[in-house]
Amino acid sequence: MKLCMAANWKMHKTQSQAGETAAELVRILGSNLPQDREVVLIPPFTALHAVSQALTSAPGFVLGAQNFYPADQGAFTGEIGPDMLLDHGCSLALAGHSERRHVLGEDNEFVAQKVRFGLDKGLRMILCIGETLQQRDSGQLETVLHDQLSTALSGLQLSNLESRLLIAYEPVWAIGTGKVAQPEDIAQAHAYVRKELTTLLPQSGQSVPILYGGSVKPDNIAQIIGIDNVNGVLVGGAGLEAESMAQIAMGTAQ
Ligand code: PGA
Questions:
Q1: Which of 40, 95, 182, 244 is the most exposed place for a label (fewest CB within 10 A)?
Q2: What confidence tens digit (pLDDT) does each residue in 130-140 have?
Q3: Active-site annotation, residues
Q4: Read out DSSP for 154-213?
């Protein structure tokens, strides 16, 4: 299983800024990127074209999208469909990021629709899951993760899901806060996610990559990437600068 080092640029960067950061990252990593990992860049829609150009003939790099609406086309003002993303060179998309769940009000059912529609259209999907601090403190961690995973994945019959689906465990209280979950908390949550995946997806659950997200930085990547069942990271703030994302992308277990 390849390690997946993904940078979600959220609502940051104009197209020229995004293109420059992507080009700089390609320049820094060059041919140094080990074969056992991929780097995913997830810019805003308006910068997809610029980043796609910067990644032309950059082996190991993948272009991703932050969101889409689960329909082929139609009267969905303000939305973007998977075919438009594929047309821009995207091969992957996020669904269920905590900001979409908690700021934009997306529920498990809508996230599930996106995961299934995106996979059907040929996109690789990163399903983001995670608990709020209040849910964790009231002992609901496993219930929340179970509901998020099972709504999106139960009954999925697609083949080769291990190369088409990734899960990102991102405790909501660790996103953009500088608070990193403790290694034992990450290990416990990832072990639970792995157990759920093997039940929900008997053919592929053992090999679906599980990423950790939430205040990942160059100075904690070595510890995080060494934890059992951590198969990559989803980075926000520290992925905005090429130098810092390059250090994360090259991070090895301590
Ligand atoms: P952060 O964001 O690295 O800034 O905490 C992570 C994310 O939103 O995926």
A1: 182
A2: 999 999 999 99
A3: 97, 170
A4: TT---TTGGGTEEEEE--GGGTTSS-PPPHHHHHHHHHHHHHHHHHH-TTTTTTS-EEEE
Pocket test for ligand 1, best of 4, 5, 8, 12 (most atoms within 8 A of CB): 8
Domains of the chain, CATH where assigned: 3-249 (3.20.20.70)
Q: Check pocket membership of 170 for ligand 1, CB cut-off 6 A.
A: yes
**pTM for the whole structure:** 0.97
**Going by CA atoms, what residue is nearest to atom 2 of ligand 1?**
236
Q: What would the pLDDT profile of 112-131 be if each residue is shown by its tens digit?
A: 999 999 999 999 999 999 99
Pairwise CA distance, residues 163 & 172, whole Å: 26
Nearest to 239 by CA among 224, 218, 225: 218
Report the nearest atom of ligand 1 relative to the CA of 178. 5
Q: How many Å apart are CA 217 and CA 251, to the nearest integer?
A: 10
> Could you tell me the CA-to-CA distances from 172 to 63, 167, 191, 217 in Å, in that order?
24, 15, 18, 16
